[in-house]
Amino acid sequence: MAETQREDSGAEQRESSGYKLEKPIVQSIMECVEARDTEALDAIIDTLHPADVADILEQISGPERREFLDLYDGDILGEVLSELDEGLREEVINALQPDDLTAAVRELESDDVVDLLEDLEEPQQERILEALPASDRAAVEQALTYPEFSAGRLMQPEVVRAPEHWRVGDAIDYMRSDTAYLPEQFYHVVLVDPMMRPTGYVTLGKLLASPRETPLMEIVEDSFRTVPVDEAEGEVAYAFNQYHLISMPVVDNGGQLVGMITIDDAMVVLDEEAEEDILRLAGVGENRISDRVWDTTKRRFPWLAVNLVTAILASIVISQFEAVIAQVVALAVLMPIVASMGGNAGTQSLTVAVRAIATKDLTGANVWRVVRREVLVGLVNGLFFALAMGIVGLIWFGSMQLGYVLAIAMVVNMVVAGLAGILIPVALEKIGVDPALASGAFVTTVTDVVGFFAFLGLAAIMLL
Amino acid sequence: MAETQREDSGAEQRESSGYKLEKPIVQSIMECVEARDTEALDAIIDTLHPADVADILEQISGPERREFLDLYDGDILGEVLSELDEGLREEVINALQPDDLTAAVRELESDDVVDLLEDLEEPQQERILEALPASDRAAVEQALTYPEFSAGRLMQPEVVRAPEHWRVGDAIDYMRSDTAYLPEQFYHVVLVDPMMRPTGYVTLGKLLASPRETPLMEIVEDSFRTVPVDEAEGEVAYAFNQYHLISMPVVDNGGQLVGMITIDDAMVVLDEEAEEDILRLAGVGENRISDRVWDTTKRRFPWLAVNLVTAILASIVISQFEAVIAQVVALAVLMPIVASMGGNAGTQSLTVAVRAIATKDLTGANVWRVVRREVLVGLVNGLFFALAMGIVGLIWFGSMQLGYVLAIAMVVNMVVAGLAGILIPVALEKIGVDPALASGAFVTTVTDVVGFFAFLGLAAIMLL
């Protein structure tokens, strides 16, 4: 693909083959840094998008980052900061000279400043707020009064609005006048009533294509949604995704227009939510690839500790059957199979359920149909693998009865796994716990305990 | 939040509290269906967004869907079809009367028709193609000549373009003329040279805000990217996300403008990619919550079968130590703990790695730093849990040596788990296999085999 960057001074063209930040680019940059060649470094960085520069900073080491920041003299640092992983922002902000930080922050729109500030400590927040012009500072402080992770924090307070009785010509003249402040990104003009309540919006495309005399009310979009300023950002992102929105006006308790959220901010949230789900299901919380050893260790530890407890629980079950195992050592060889198959089936079931809950595809309307399906699937797969394991038991250890024990335990565990995999996330969701976070531990506890108990218990009955 | 839907006939207002399709709505709809009350059904459906109607159809049962389709008489069926889960599209298309299908398909833009067609069988594709007006049909057939999952399939061939030497006034007059075809969604005007090659684009916002005499070249965006028509859709979605794009022009081999991809299509792909990753990591492939029992069983079976093989492998390792277990039955009680901790640590590591590979945060530039980090994290956590398990072994079974065996095996397995969790996805990616798909099985095989071998092997040496 081709990317061209245009500077005020002329056209700066650069072909890059593919979006991957190839090792060569990173190497050239580090060579400039080592040679302390500011000019060459700025030249390379100028051809890159801030998002790619942020990626590079995430991939190099701490000391290399500091050298980079010492040397870099260009003007995209503010945007780079917005794109940077939260884990690295503090480090970079601390490494910047006060003047550089001021310059960087002044480049940004107020919603990006809010995003930057949210994760910083008080003193750093103060530093940044002091660097802003008065009006921006007011907007940012206003945004910070809204709850964290709410629509109020995502929105841009400057909205292009027009009284609902205006015509196309009025709107265009207004936008061309000096008094109008037009945000970097806007895609609609919001119509408001005399009480400043939004009543519809017009896409810029329709605005452009319609004659000047057309009343704006005649070309509003069919479907119009607004969001309260304290709505959770996850719900906002869901709406953007579900209804294919490009922008959505934000209203306060009185229904008055207070801001606009655009698709780029919603997409960041959507991305974060998907990432969170993937990482939570595996018990790694907010682990990022750029985290250091100690942070990573701390973030993985809780889940491992919980799993240690569940593993010990399962071992307690096994220990009830020590005598049985002592007599038929084959049981020790085979028991992990039943438990592990149950664990895998349970994980499949719970992953589909957690994902469906997150996308609102699993609701009160269809949960019992899904439970019924999970039980049947567990039964069918269970029977199939029961047959397979029965044969394995027979061939490997020459015992028909061992085969039966394996088979029955397998069916039981697979059905229980399916049930647990769907019921546990749903139950956790109902009591307000994030199913992605906690289901895994509960489900594997159930499948391990049931797996070992069914297998060893049946063995005790049938073989002794 | 509030949602208002406007009909040509006037303003139809409806407040819905929250985006969740509450059970009450689904129930009202099913009541209308059972009462065979077309008018009431159409009235309710008219107030809903097609995406929500699709969700409802996904949540009710097969027979209920057919009754709904028999009865529903409104005109949003085409959009609903686009929003429907792929697994259900075939069923719904087959259930529609030919006239209804024709009407439904004619509502859609050509890129949505392409998306609909892609997953259908030949005869059904033919039915739909025959329903289209000739020009749309040509556009769709052209799109189908591009590889599946490529930019060519996502794009809208109609692009709002202007010769690069035009001024703002020329562009606006053109868009207002009868000859211009303006797509439902467009956010930029693409500037082209005499060879029809794109040289930049102008946002509608800037177009509106600039005086008529302004040359378009003066208000183009700083950053401009195009994508080749055969680029993989995953790369397209990555670019939209990474660079916060709203639209991106598509060019053919000669660099000529052939279409435009807009954010709504890219977001669907992004969403699908994230969902695929989550589901693949758990081995459920394309399982959707609306799938029926048999489809679900078939989709989960392969992963379970693979895991059965790896579980048997692990059991073979255990069976080498039958004699040891016969003598020290405590080993059978404790061995699942070491294996399971290794499995969990390995899964944490592999999930972070797979996600980082997908978001291009793990590349040749930082892979060895990450490997080193994983080994250290495995070591630190391993030592901690080794201490914990050593104490457990001592307390539970009263044997210092058992404690040592547990501790050493734990450290070994945690370090190996960290290594495997990062190296296996990277290796799979390098040989062109999707790491999300296959890593899990390999990593747990390694941790199980190493876990059992280390524990039982050390036990054999130290206790006998």
UniProtKB/TrEMBL annotation, chains A, B:
It comes from the Bacteria. Pfam families: CBS (PF00571), MgtE (PF01769), MgtE_N (PF03448). Residues 219-276 form the CBS domain. PROSITE patterns: CBS. InterPro entries: CBS_dom, CBS_dom_sf, Mg_transptr_MgtE_intracell_dom, MgtE_N_sf, MgtE_transporter, SLC41_membr_dom, SLC41_membr_dom_sf. One of its GO terms (cellular component) is plasma membrane. Its main location: membrane. It is a multi-pass membrane protein. The chain crosses the membrane at residues 301-318, 324-345, 375-398, 404-428, 440-463. Keywords: CBS domain, Cell membrane, Magnesium, Membrane, Metal-binding, Transmembrane, Transmembrane helix, Transport. The keyword Transmembrane helix applies. SMART domains: CBS, MgtE_N. GO terms for molecular function: magnesium ion transmembrane transporter activity; metal ion binding. Homodimer. Belongs to the SLC41A transporter family. Acts as a magnesium transporter. This is Magnesium transporter MgtE. It comes from Harenicola maris.
